[in-house]
Design brief:
Number of strands: 23
Radius of gyration: 20 Å
Length: 310
Amino acid sequence: MKKLYFLILAICFSSTVLGQVIVSDDFDYPDGSLVGATGSTWVNHSGTAGDLLVSSGQARVAHGTPSEDANIPFAAVSGTIYYGIDFTVEDPGSAIAGSDFEYFAHFKDDGFNFAARLDIVPPTASGDFSVGIASDDSTADATWATDLSYGVKYRAIVEYDQDSNIAKLWIDPTSEASTSITGDDGDDPGDTIVQFALRQSDSDTNESILVDNLVVGNLFSDVLSFPLSLKKNKIPNFSVYPNPTQQNFVTISSKWNTAIDIEVYDIIGKQILNKKITDHILDISTLKSGMYLVRAEQDNAISIEKLVVR
């Protein structure tokens, strides 16, 4: 099961420990750029590459000067799909105000059609902010009725029905029966979802949002929390070199000397290679020029690394 999870996490390679989990990320990367971090499968699709950052094991989505938008891709599924994230809004010095409310998390197709957009909006009363959900628009269709506070971590659960083009939002639910709000009913069918994305932009109040413990799944129960069973157990001192490469072989190194199960995927999630190596040498002579993801499993630990073949 653990092997299946990481298969989907790296462009279709996430764990299926719970059976329906499609992709997950606990953002356990070194401080710095999210895209390109060791073990990260996030991809830039807009803005200045490298300025969507990881800070203390969380992604920092900063409205204002930063502009990078990035996504984590996965294989398409039919019907209803969910994402769950922990989020904390940092205090920008005053309550959220204005009329330009920029979404920071959403689903995405393989182009530039966005769905189930989650954004920070002004409070409805005397709180710091509220949140809104949009099914298929760029501004919120519905707003959470209870104000939220800066510096507090909340769990947002978002449902998107790809057939009826409707999104739904829960904040800190205990079950699917908990209070929720529903976006507009868009034109049917909706977008075919193959990516979850984080978005940075410039808005009337340029707050920063810390995002953690992402889970995408087919069931509400799969994304309600981030199970400890999905935490990454990485291979120590794992590396793939030379990288980029023009050679027919790469070295797969780690702290251990035991056999390594290797799977290589292209950028759309198709498995290209599946081999067990015992000498740390992987034959890639059949790979064409392009970017791939190498998934390695060794002694119940798993690591994923991008590989560029020239």
